[in-house]
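Hey team,

Filing this mostly as a record. A colleague (T.K.) asked me to run one chain through the structure pipeline before their review meeting, and I want the input and output archived in the tracker in case anyone asks later how it was produced. No errors, nothing strange. Just documentation.

Input sequence:
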Amino acid sequence: MFRFEHPEYLNLMWLLPVLVVIYVLYLRWKRKVAKRLGDTSVTGLLMPYRSGWRSHFKFLLSLLTIASILVALANPQIGSQLEKVKRKGIDIVIALDVSNSMLAQDIKPNRLERAKQSINRLIDDLENDRIGLVVFAGKAYTQLPITTDYTAAKLMLSTVSTDMVPVQGTSIEKAVETAMSAFNVEKSGKAIIIITDGETHDEEALIKVAEAAEKGIRVFTIGLGLAEGAPIPTYRNGQVSGFRKDRSGSTVITRLDETMLQQIADAGKGIYVRASTSQIGLNRIFDEVKRLEENTYDVKSYSDYEDRFQYFIALAMLLVFLNYIINERKSRLGDKLSILNPNSIKK
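Output structure:
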């Protein structure tokens, strides 16, 4: 297992491209000054030992030195002792609707993006709880099995789009069935959170949700969209090019089906929350989820880490030494040591 003890220092890496820009601007200014002094072919003869590539190489060494120091400050570590630990928490599977209707922009920037932003914030609030992700439209797929790896959860969440499920529709039944398969049914503390605009007439969903409730799995629903509905945008080259139309040429309006979502939440012994333009409602549902009985599970984790910052300190010192001996204005020691100095070559 590899990690950085202080990853915040890596944010300073943005200084490197800034220094490159400054260096390029400096070289341009230097060339302009040289042109003012006279013809470059003549001024070049006056400085026979001037080496342009040496100064570039020296600058590159400086950048590598800074990068090595920053990595050393972040302190890379390698796990050296793996052991099993017991944790208590809730198992949560989020079933996220990725049908085309989730692109409607009645909730900005659109229903799907707002849902992803809220899930991302929810992951930040998790501690020992496990989370899984199911995406669904006309079919349902497991995007992320239940895990405590919150970094992986955020990564998988970032890849979610309406192109993931080729079959259109809103099959909540399949979403619940797929989510149920992720749980260990012998344990307590299980919840499914369905985030959708609820445009479905799937009566089988109520049967499936009641089945989940019998197995101790609570089902919560969040409705995305406004009562008046909104058109579904189409895109071309990343820009909205129009809106979806039906066979008669009329613009399709997608509306929130609150009645169905309320019935699903009741059958799943959970609650229904309607999202607003300012809040999705995940926090309110998570407060309810935290009241569930926690289950105990084993997790393999590293209990001891070995520091590796010293290697990067050594690399930085080596780079500084190399930078010194190839300096354009060499010291006496540099004149003797540098293999790049033409005066050191004896005939």
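Quick notes for T.K.: Residues 15-37 form the longest helix (23 residues). The chain has two domains: 2-75+308-344, 84-299.
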